[in-house]
Amino acid sequence: MSQSSNKLPGSDKLFGKVIYSYTRAQAIDDGVLMDATEMAKEAGFNWPVALTAAAWSDCVAWSDADNDRQTYQDQSGRLWDVLFMASYAIRSAKNSDQQLLFELQRIARDGCSTKSQRLTLKLILGPDDDGEPVITIMLPEED
């Protein structure tokens, strides 16, 4: 959260002046979050979408070496699968919570798997650095 736009009135009195804040933009620049916004637009998302590095590594990342060791996969196709299932989960949700769990079938990037396995992911709707809505997809144990 940026210090200027998302500060609660009177929060300086309670918590003191903000010394440092780590922004979403910095997290994307640092590789802590992987921006998927462009493909997410194609999948029907109206807001920016990012995956945590751990979710990206588990569900999206795929190299030529992985193709040689395991089975052929395309990294952009793996990203599409994550975004499509997230979009489907949003459309199918019976409530409007800011957090949603959804399932994905993916081949684990473990050097030997060739059959898909089910994995649960977590989607969170929250504010970006300027208070605008953004979506973050992560592993269930991540915050």
Task: Spell out the blueprint of helices and strands.
Blueprint (H helix, E strand, L loop, with lengths): L10 H5 L8 H7 L2 E3 L1 H6 L6 E4 H7 L4 H6 L5 H18 L6 E8 L10 E11 L5 E6 L5
Parallel strand pairs: 2-5
Antiparallel strand pairs: 1-2, 3-4, 4-5
Instruction: Assign an overall shape.
Output: globular
Strand line-up of the largest beta sheet: 1-2-5-4-3
Number of strands: 5
Helix-strand pattern: HHEHEHHHEEE
Whole-number count of domains:
1
Please, could you describe this protein's structure?
The chain has 143 residues and is an alpha+beta fold. The chain has one domain (23-138). Helices cover 34% and strands 22% of the residues. The protein is built from six helices and five strands. The protein has a five-stranded mixed sheet. A hairpin with a 5-residue loop joins strand 4 and strand 5. The protein is globular.
